[in-house]
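Hi team,

As requested, here is the filled-out complex form for the magnesium ion run. I kept the field names the same as last time so the parser does not choke. Let me know if anything looks off before we queue the next batch.

— J.
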Amino acid sequence: MSFLKLNQISHQYLYKKGYTKALKDISFTASEGSFISLLGPSGCGKTTLLSIIAGLIEPTRGEVTLQDKPISDSKSDIGYMLQQDYLFPWKTILDNALIGPQIQQKQKNAIKEKAIQMLEDLGLSDVIDSYPHSLSGGMRQRAALVRTLITDPNLLLLDEPFSALDFQSKLKLEDLVSNLLHQYNKTSVLVTHDIGEAIAMSDRIYLMKADPGEIQKVFEIPIELRNLPPFQARKHLKYQQLFDRVWEELNKLEAKSIV
Amino acid sequence: MKQNQLSDDQLFKQYQKKININRLKIILWQFVIFISFFGLWELSSQLGWIDKLIFSSPSKIWMLFTENLVDGSLWFHSRVTLFETIAGFILGTISGIILAAILWWSDRLSKILDPYLVVLNALPKVALGPIIIVALGPGYLSIIMMGAIISVIVTTLVVYSAFKEVDSNFTKVLKSFGATKWQCFKEAIFPASFPSMISTFKVNVGLSWVGVIVGEFLVAGKGLGYLIVYGFQVFNFTLVLYSLLVIAFFAAIMYFLVEKLEKWLIKNPDN
Ligand SMILES: Nc1ncnc2c1ncn2[C@@H]1O[C@H](COP(=O)(O)OP(=O)(O)OP(=O)(O)O)[C@@H](O)[C@H]1O
Ligand SMILES: [Mg+2]
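And here is what came back:
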């Protein structure tokens, strides 16, 4: 049984004067505990696809199921981390982290303890009562991560969560996220522009092309890399080989789109 | 290390001192303008440069002021007008915000009502005065209504557009946790619009005074607006100017309170 299943998803955005075909016939499955990356040029529909999986956009065709149930039934099982952190500037870091439980009316002392614990684990103990504006980009991103994880979702959707970070914070956060996800056996879908990140973190990569958004190619990550933390994986020989292959494919896509 | 710290401290002290001096200078200038305005007024009235009958003089107004303060009529008239203005302000602002929320709630309704709102906004609301007075009777209620109606439409439009401008990704975050529309409104749309709401409050303070004073011109037998009309009728311009100054004083206080509210609502990182 597959945990997450996308069946022939197509989506078009409609406006007054026409429409954009954002996605065409996307199908894939992800087993429980696996990590999937969506890689592709800008505008190929990655964010759209993630919003569809999260149940925030109704696809024009096709369906998404989580544990064989339509996603509309399992909203609270999904955690979605947006392309930017979108912490609420008028709430403290702790209150931001607790938005999910508050919305789901699960706010109890136990969950507050848990949030404090998680924030401390991620090195945010000094800023628990601060407002987001006083935090660095990396800290904000970690706070957004706590907000996503606190409701204990089984499926995590990460939309370029590390794109706004400097290289060093990015590597550190990759390791941390990867570690957390493995520890709790979470299933994840990561959207990224960064080939290296996709290889280092995932079990499988779907390479997408634009106009319309379709899956172009699938890369299975060698088992040696899967079991390494991202930082170590980046140093492995097979990492480099795979990087070159993906790079080549991406270049082909871009060459096509330029012609 | 120690020395370094000391000089950092000194730098900070210098900076603080500079800020304080600048602030004092500004206050000094404000004071100078105040004094010279009233001084010049008094002088030119005494020397006959301006018509004493029309422009009166600060000393005469002061005399009237102390007189009215003692016999209680200052507070009597102020109380009436203040009550009407505050009630009008609150009524206008809150109904404006509620209307904006309804428009935000229903996209279709807001599209349907759009042209009507634009026309209503362009309409000079005080022109509705006679109709309101006939409908609600000549009294408190009409005057409060005047104070409210003058600000309600513009509040609706400004607050509604603020609601619309809130980054949809904030609601996306909430929806990803399964938030209802009401929760999205309460947690994201409404608090994100505080700054625009505060600026409409500031505008509405002024507008409510306009509405109420015009309302009092039309019907009242008491209040500061009534005193102005009465002063005009008996050609007592000292009374007119006195009322005007009292209004200016209270309007300033209301504005100041709104600013306090702003500081409280919007946690500004720089303060
Ligand atoms: N709300 C929207 N309304 C209309 N068109 C949209 C909307 N969102 C996205 N699109 C269009 O759909 C296509 C896919 O957009 P999407 O944001 O999913 O791309 P993406 O792969 O996430 O890009 P990026 O890597 O730049 O984030 C683009 O052509 C975009 O213009
Ligand atoms: Mg995107």
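Two things worth flagging: Chain B has two domains: 3-50, 58-265. Chain B touches chain A at residues 167, 169-170, 172-179, 183, 187-188, 191-192, 194, 266-267, 269 (CB under 8 Å).

Thanks,
J.
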